[in-house]
Amino acid sequence: MVGKRPLSVGEAFYVLAYMGADIAFMPFLVLLLPRRVASIGVAAGGEHLLALLVLAGGITASLDNIAAGQISDRAMTRRGNRRRAIAGGLACLFASYGVLAFSYSPPVLALGVIAFQIAVNLLLGPIGPLIADYIPDERKGNIAGFLNCGVPVANGSVAVIAWAAPVDGSTGFAFTIALVAACVLPLLVFWPFGSPLKPQPAPMPVGGDAGGRTPLLLRNLALAWWARFLLQLGAALLTNYLYPYIAFVMQRPMAASRLTADTAVGWLSLWAALAACCGAVAFGRLSDMLADRRSLMIGSALLAALALTGFATAPGWWMLAVAYALFHLAQAAFFSVEAAFVAEIITSSRKKGRWLGYMNLANTLPAILITLLAMQASHQNVLGSAMHLVLLVCASACIIAAGLCFAMRDHLGFDGLVPDTAGRYN
Questions:
Q1: Do 30 and 167 share a structural domain?
Q2: Cβ(418)–Cβ(199) under 8 Å?
Q3: Residue 89 pLDDT > 80
Q4: Which of 107, 226, 289, 309 is the most buried (most CB within 10 A)?
Q5: Cα dihedral sign, 186-189-190-194
Q6: Which is it for the CA torsion 273, 259, 252, 51, positive or negative?
Q7: In terms of residue numbers, what domain contains 123?
């Protein structure tokens, strides 16, 4: 049963630090990097350079998050916590921001972006597993809901940073890293956690033994990975290419609207952020009250499919706005419940960071895939016109994700397993 308090002091420090890690990368990708590319004035085309930098950063993040998770696992084994690993990631992030603040040529900027992606994953790598290390199963959904408010809050921080540093320069980078430090340092200074959770013996499945459960463990994680991957396709599409799509539909289907593309994107982003926070917290908390989290995962995936279909076929602005907000609510709900589901599975594993690093590939690979497709479509000048079809394909992917969630085995974790000589379930 979920406790009466939404968050304890220690849990609040954890959520704040996680939001700080989100603030570390979101303003950079949305504001600081595009603005720096524009200020450099690349003769060959700033948009192409920006796409290449984002692509290189995504590939770096995909590989580095696994390594960062393994590093934090070693720190956990040696010292009993991930405190120094988090501090090391924060220090590396400070250094990378120092490089980026004074990167005024494409080669230096490219190196800075790669260094930044390594640093931000060295921070995220040890922070992510804390939910499995210290948060009881009956509160994992609640905490995961608050953690998934991090991206909407980080999006909101873009406006604050743009106000504090309205033009390109070192001020924007300094202000951003100061916000990150203000969020992460309370966790490091006070470190409210005691000993990690101890494994609780789990009942054996009917007709099976401990060794026989290992394939089912990996099956659960694999299904969760693919479900997240499929949901992230639509999220990556609308996150990175909302503006060109809105600009396209304003030319024809919604040309009579008084809104400009900038105004429309601003309002859509605001309502989407509010809806995402509500969906993440409400569904995460509700999942702690249910015996089976899969029902909420299935429902939110189907709701995301409905929202993407509505967004692709919307006849007017109101329908477009409702569908966009509904999609963000649904995806935030899904990611919160799925994160709690995965955290339950790996709670007793000694390599939580590694497992979450593999799971993070389901977040980064869709962004890489969508970026490659968009670059190809941009070369052929069909990005706007093809978005309707791509949105419907992403809606179909959400339906497939719901089917994968239905195939999962609930409450099947590492708890109570005895490792074999190779330690394969770890």
A1: yes
A2: no
A3: yes
A4: 309
A5: positive
A6: negative
A7: 1-191
